[in-house]
Specification:
The protein has 187 residues and is an all-alpha fold. The chain has one domain. 73% of the residues lie in helices and 0% in strands. The protein is built from seven helices and no strands. The longest helix has 26 residues, at 106-131. The protein is globular. The two termini are 30 Å apart. 33% of the residues are buried.
Length: 187
């Protein structure tokens, strides 16, 4: 199943994110999109009530917290080591975004919404001006919304030497995929 095949997902993502400037844009703005979406979704009420002894003030099971839990579980399934590192990051982000929502309400959401929009615009500029092709969002919505943060985190880890053999295999397959997308011509 391709959805849980990390290497195939990385190849697909890499074919749409190969220009160094576009990669850097994504490394900055994908985490911002994720965090602001958690804050925006934290405005929902608790969707799954928990017994009092399982409740934590800043992690009510609203849509923002549930989004973080789904991402964390999915990342652990795709890449257990990296996924386990992402779990506290995602839950910490959810707790802080819930805190901001509880403390500042609509002001926090207004700021998050504006930042969210600017971050998406930056992504599209990166694809149009530097990558020269439409974003993967148009071909694979699941990947654009769910997997992009994991891929960005892996980009950072690759910079520090994490799993170089995986990075080499993916890069070789990305080159083939780009050639295929370009109709056999190198760009």
């Amino acid at each position: 199943m391709m959805a849980l095949d990390l290497e195939k997902q990385l190849v697909f993502y890499g074919a749409y994110h190969h220009n160094p400037v576009n990669i850097r844009i994504h490394m900055i703005f994908v985490p911002i999109i994720l965090i602001t979406s958690i804050q925006i979704l934290s405005n929902t009420p608790t969707l799954i009530p928990l017994p009092e002894f399982l409740q934590y003030k800043y992690l009510p099971l609203n849509a923002g917290t549930i989004q973080s839990l789904i991402y964390a579980l999915g990342y652990v399934l795709l890449e257990p080591v990296v996924g386990l590192v992402c779990v506290p990051t995602l839950l910490g982000a959810a707790a802080y975004m819930n805190y901001l929502t509880m403390t500042y309400g609509a002001t926090a959401t207004s700021w998050s919404s504006g930042i969210f929009i600017v971050a998406w615009i930056a992504q599209f500029v990166g694809h149009g001006a530097y990558e020269g092709r439409s974003p993967a969002l148009l071909d694979n919505l699941f990947q654009a919304l769910f997997l992009a943060p994991l891929f960005v985190f892996l980009e950072y880890l690759f910079m520090f030497g994490y799993r170089p053999e995986l990075q080499r295999r993916v890069e070789a397959e990305v080159q083939k995929k780009i050639a295929q997308l370009n109709g056999g011509k190198n760009k």
